[in-house]
Write a structure and sequence with these properties.
By secondary structure, the protein is α/β, with parallel strands linked by helices. The chain has 13 helices and ten strands. Helix content is 48%, strand content 18%. The chain is globular, with a radius of gyration of 20 Å. It holds the Pfam family BcrAD_BadFG.
Amino acid sequence: MYYIGIDGGGTKTTFTLINEQGLKIGQYKTGTTHYAQIGFDGLKSVIKEGIEEILENSDISRNLIKGVFLGLPGYGEVKSVKHEIEEVVKSILGDIKYEIGNDVEVGLAGSLAGEDGINIVSGTGSIALGKDSTGSFARCGGWGDYIGDEGSAHWIGKKTLEIFSKEADNRLEKGDLYYNIREKLNLEDDFDIIDYVLNKIQKDRGKIAEFSSICHESALQGDKNAIKIFEEAAYELSLLVKMIVNELNFEKEILVSYSGGVFNSKEMILKPLRKELSDFNVKLIEPILGPDEGACLLAYKLDGNMITESFIENLSKSIEEVTA
């Protein structure tokens, strides 16, 4: 028996196939599954392609798939959108047992290996989800880039562009962030960045988010304005955690973990985040499993299976590693 976990996101999507022991049989990575970026036809194309590729590459028959969990960005936030996504998935998976959730759900399942606690997702967008010992859930954030997504890569990217404009105007002292952007974009004039954002990348959400990596590079070089952006991002992400702590009933120290590209900046975001959460009974821990493995865990549970320690251990391994 086999199971497929789908970890969708604003930038990339990972399809992972596991066997009943939890060992990875195959994996396929592709672009975004955010309907707002690719439309519902694009969503259908990506999911269909991912399912077909992972089965073909692993030489596994479709009728051997006993559970699929799809963690998709934007799911569950708008009723009409929720229905459209469900119709798309139904048309592809048909009679295969499946469940759809928001991408934050696979982040929570993976980062805490199914245990109670809180997971922060800060990728292209931002959102947090918590679960307490009673099985109650609470989420915070996930309002999208036009309304919220504070602390996300897109938010950091926009802040980076804002700082560039202020430094270009001498409203702020020029630093590494300013010079790094000029160099990487090969700008002849500061105002050329307007043409780059509006016309070349057409305000693409994912492309704007890529400016967060320039911000990180500049912060590592000691740029004070870049460091401040990460401190502000940490503050915004801490608010998501604090709301969930107050909303749910946690009886002991609360495990808080994370997923998403912003956390690739390591201590640049984690150090100020720990500081912001220092007055709360929380413990910030590294993710136990990735969100793709969390999706597999949830797919496995769909078939009525119990999660064991050996299964958790196997999720981080491939069948080739075990049989080598």
